[in-house]
Design goal:
Elements (H helix, E strand, L loop, with lengths): L1 H6 L14 E5 L4 H12 L3 E6 L2 H15 L4 E5 L5 H14 L5 E4 L17 H23 L3 E6 L22 H22 L5 E7 L13 H9 L7 H4 L1 H8 L10 E3 L2 E2 L9 H15 L5
Parallel strand pairs: 1-2, 1-4, 2-3, 4-5, 5-6, 6-7
Antiparallel strand pairs: 7-8
Helix pairs in contact: 2-3, 4-5, 5-6, 6-10
The chain binds NADP nicotinamide-adenine-dinucleotide phosphate (NAP).
NADP nicotinamide-adenine-dinucleotide phosphate binds next to helix 2.
Length: 298
């Protein structure tokens, strides 16, 4: 089913409307996030573009308002590589927004040189996992009050490239960009499982997904030949609009109501690696993430 859907890319569609609902999408000034925002805006949602670069985000906002005909698209500053920015963003949302029905943790960085976040976390783990983990924690009361509500974590098939290195989570002893990206995406899937368990009975459901191999700016840190190859082999890769479909599916598909914690690809349930289904590791990662962020989240 999933592979058939992948073959007929973009085949899934849904008439679901989101009038009166509020959505936050991180990293939505470009790529998959921007196309997800475009679709959900067309469905009538109030869309909050949570982005680190306000200039790029404002340009995206203008384009999306014009294209969707929905004026209720706003930009809010969020830099996931700095917990201070995550806390400030959450404070603004918790103060100004009456509800939050869909949170899409989409922003991501792939295979960058060794860098640390403002808090000293390895950049890919810090942005892709810890930044979103903290954001979700800080917005969770509002999300619960808005139930039925959904949290969508954009992971990747690249979760198979790494493992959770509990003894060197920040890759200080050794750094391999690909392995660190894999670790961060594995963390997205494991924390989705853990969160789903904790949210049982709240009306808030959680999903993780692989969007496909997508021609976006994600490849910016890779060598030019690889970037060119991604574009040349366009038959095997997706446009950002096609790449957004599984995020949109997880955000709106009626059939997913009541299901939580799963991993999706090609707008269908998908199989993740054995490591990504390891509940013991999921719990260890949860505890470590809380400890690193200095939060108490049981
Ligand atoms: N493209 C693929 O083939 C593929 C495959 C599997 C999974 N994914 C996942 O899909 C998601 C979206 O990626 P994409 O392909 O759309 O990549 P993209 O075009 O590079 O977009 C990534 C977005 O994340 C934002 N971002 C990066 N660091 C951030 C930070 N510190 N704080 C806030 N925002 C930040 C970027 O903002 P700036 O524009 O300011 O940098 C951009 O808006 C990612 O989670 C990625 O891991 C993509």
């Amino acid at each position: 089913m999933s592979s058939m859907r992948s073959f007929f890319r973009g085949a899934w569609s849904s008439p679901v409307r989101l009038d009166g609902k509020t959505v936050i999408i991180t990293g939505s000034n470009t790529g998959i996030g921007k196309e997800t925002a475009r679709d959900l805006a067309k469905r009538g949602a109030r869309v909050i573009l949570a982005c680190r670069d306000l200039e790029k985000a404002e340009a995206a906002r203008k384009e999306l308002v014009e294209d969707s005909g929905n004026p209720d698209i706003v930009v809010k500053k969020l830099d996931l590589s700095d917990t201070k920015s995550v806390k400030e963003f959450a404070e603004v949302i918790n103060t100004e927004e009456k509800q939050l029905n869909i949170l899409i943790n989409n922003a991501g960085i792939m295979m960058c040189p060794y860098l640390k976040t403002a808090d000293g976390f390895e950049m890919q783990f810090g942005v892709n996992h810890l930044g979103h983990f903290l954001l979700t924690y800080l917005l969770l009361d509002l999300i619960k009050r808005s139930a039925p509500a959904r949290i969508v974590n954009v992971a990747s098939v690249a979760h198979t490239w790494g493992s959770i290195r509990l003894d060197d989570i920040n890759s200080e002893k050794s750094y391999a960009p690909r392995r660190a990206y894999g670790q961060s995406k594995l963390a997205n899937i494991l924390s989705t499982r853990s969160l789903a368990k904790r949210l049982q009975g709240t009306g808030v459901t959680v999903y993780s997904l692989h969007p496909g191999v997508v021609r976006s700016e994600l490849w910016r840190n890779l060598s030019k030949p690889i970037q060119i190859a991604v574009n040349i082999f366009s038959l095997f890769t997706k446009t950002t609009m096609q790449g957004a479909q599984t995020s949109i599916y997880c955000a709106v598909e009626h059939q997913l109501e009541g299901q939580s914690g799963g991993y999706y690809s090609g707008c269908a349930p998908a199989r993740c690696s054995r490591e990504a289904s390891d509940d013991e590791m999921a719990q260890k990662l949860w505890e470590l993430s809380c400890q690193m962020l200095g939060i108490n989240w049981d």
